[in-house]
Write a structure and sequence with these properties.
The chain is mainly α. The protein is built from four helices and no strands. The chain folds into two domains: about 35 residues; about 70 residues, no CATH class. About 70% of the residues lie in helices and about 0% in strands.
Amino acid sequence: MLLRINMTTKTLPVAAGLALAALAPTSFAQKASVPRPQDKLAIAEPHATQLLLLMDGDKNGKVSKDEWMKFMAAEFDRLDKRKAGELNVRALKDESKVRPTYFTEVGK
């Protein structure tokens, strides 16, 4: 009986250590695949630049408040398919999974 208890106390920590070692790489991989906030900004920058170029109606290299507001109003109207005067974020997410939107279509 003493032999059985002694063997259990030795094998339990070893088994727990092996289980943790097997699970550790997956938890590190999951954390590594999530972009950090500054990475999200870096990823979005080319898209924001493209949008600003589309907003520049008079092509002077600057986006005025008026150009910004006209662009956003046109984009809101384009996305408000039911003409309800509000956008449903969940519905927009579902729609974007079905049909990708390209920036050339935005604001028109």
